[in-house]
Amino acid sequence: MLKFVLLLSFVAVALAEPSVYFKDYFAKNDWEKRWLTSESKADIGKFKLTAGKFYNDEEQDAGLQTTQDARFYAVSSSFDSFSNKGKTLVVQFSVKHEQNIDCGGGYVKLFPGTLDQKKMTGDSEYNIMFGPDICGPGTKKVHVIFQYKGKNLLIKKDIRCKDDEATHVYTLIVKPDNTYEVLIDNTVAQTGGLEADWDFLPAKEIKDPEASKPEDWDDREKIADPTDTKPEDWEKPEHIADPDAKKPEDWDDEMDGEWEAPMVDNPEYKGEWEPKQIDNPDYSGKWVHPMIPNPEYVADDELYAYEDFGVIGLDLWQVKSGTIFDNFLMTDDADFAKSECENILSTTVKGEKKMKDAHDEEERKKREEEEKKTAEEADEEDADADADADADADDVDEDLEDATDMDEDSIEADESEAEDATEQEPAGKDEL
Q1: Which helix (H) or strand (E) holds 80?
Q2: Partners of 23 in the beta sheet?
Q3: Which of 92, 87, 43, 88 is nearest to 69 (CA)?
Q4: What is the pLDDT of residues 150-161, one digit of tens each?
Q5: pTM for this structure?
């Protein structure tokens, strides 16, 4: 009996444990052993393992960062193939656009296990594509694309992604009841049904091709009043000669032609006359085209299900590199994924914000010191300029004083010479 109880306990524990199909938080610096770069292009962009400029723990927060501008990136990692049939599928990973991205992808693709990883390209068939995509101010969305019967189906709802430089966690939950959730940082960004939000299936109903509106059907709610007539004084010209205009005095009829007053809007103009509208006594209502079941519609209770997941990859283009991808997780337990996300938010995200805030504060102080120094230097330059100006003014005053003294000396000399000349004149007369 004890053995049976213990067996049941082990079974219960096993059933309670989440299935983790893939998990890579890059805790070890051996990512190139697990991730394979595609050889489909000679100039495929290179990744490096780094936590970036800001982090909580430099080793624990390291992820794959794009390093080359204007490049395609194609790298993937394989795992034991599984099917999500009858199970919840959760895909989760973090993205940090440390470069303040202007145009580039930040999404993952989930491939079947049959993918030839060395030949992976943008045309390789995938099951699901999920994650942020930014290109200029007009495109800042979260892609959720499902492959169904050879077609890639885009979500019909808009999900806006984050566009700052911090780490954000993106989560997609696909449930066996054909519903889904998209979370960003553990907050629901969108939710709904697969059939409603993607064009998996044709419409359930279509317009009856055999039906048409009866010829005597009158869908005019209002009609012109047949008894209404246009008033006799209705007709007025739309424009008239400006009664306040006068011919310029310098107008020459021979040279300028016959003068005509400019035209202005006629204040008495009432527009085109139309009879007033009245209720249509023969109104039949709005005709609605009858709908019939669509013969091409076939319900599918397993829109969510895929037979084979075996590879996760980053297949994207970036104009400006610097994005860091980390914390990849695929599981069947949404609560487990939310717990993992909460741990990332409380450690990595919180720590990198603290580090960035400290850096920004230090930079702010440096700017203030530089601005203060610049202002002081400017004040010193102004003071020197004022001193030079005062010195120049003093020099001018001295020059003026010197000039005044010279003028006075010159005047005194002239007066002295004049006096001498005056004293000599009488003596000259006596001599005569």
Answers
A1: strand 71-82
A2: 329
A3: 43
A4: 999 999 999 999
A5: 0.75
